[in-house]
Specification:
alpha/beta, Rossmann fold, Elongation Factor Tu (Ef-tu), domain 3, 2 domains, six-stranded parallel beta sheet, six-stranded antiparallel beta barrel, 10 helices, 14 strands
Amino acid sequence: MLVFRGVPERATTSTVLTIGNFDGVHRGHRALLSELTAKARELALPATVLTFEPHPRELFAPDQAPARLASLRDKFELLAECGVDRVHVCRFTRKLAGLTAGEFIENILVRGLSVRHLIIGDDFRFGKGRGGDFALLEQAGVEHRFVVEAMHTVDFGGVRVSSSAVRDALAAGNIEHAEELLGRAYVIAGRVMDGRKLGRTIGFPTANIQVRRKRLPLSGVFAVTVSGIDAKPLPGAANIGVRPTVEEGLKPVLEVHLLDFDRDIYGMHVDVNFLHKLRDEAKFDSLDALKAQIARDVADVKKFFYRRGAEAQR
């Protein structure tokens, strides 16, 4: 998959295109991308995604912007898995936000990306003041000879699949529902970094995963598996939060205690797959109290994986 910064002044090839943020690449996104890639193969053109960085709400209302489900790198990997050929990442600025719907169509869709077939969500709005909609795109398609197709909402279990619904499930600790909406386990990827080694001193060494995002969509203690170390995912107990027992005012961190594991994995890039929430993060009066709770957490994680294994064998 090719990744481009911005949109060229004039396209060198036509495209089958979709537009969106694609945060988390959930079931709804995947259904749309399946349509995109099928049409692209039919027309022998690149399946292309136009996305924006940062998210518009991060520019206009940073304090109200939603926590990201995935980093930009993770988004690229998920889009590639779905068969996307090209991604154009447009820097979202006030200048870009000031383009009228007509200017957006002319400058970006027609001249910059030479769109032949456009697939969008049924609620897609664009241009200054969100003045552009599906009807306007259809009119432009007649003039500029491209087809516009609406992708309708995807429901799962009676719930509209959306990035907001996934965030709500994660924030509520309903990891299993988030997995249903995503069509896979929720994952945070990162590199294992050198930490304070506090866990080692109390008998529970942890892998400290580098998290670059300022806000995370979930917090607490979880049963997880970690991919990227061995051929099979390794089970573990993860804490994601600000570690209030250790110090006040710390940035969010992700720490994973791998079960029955004692190897040096510093520098490895791993995926932490969240499977079940055990409890919220809490502040303890002493390190001894924290150690006792971690022992209970590890025991609960072992029980979770035992039950999971037993159910899989039925």
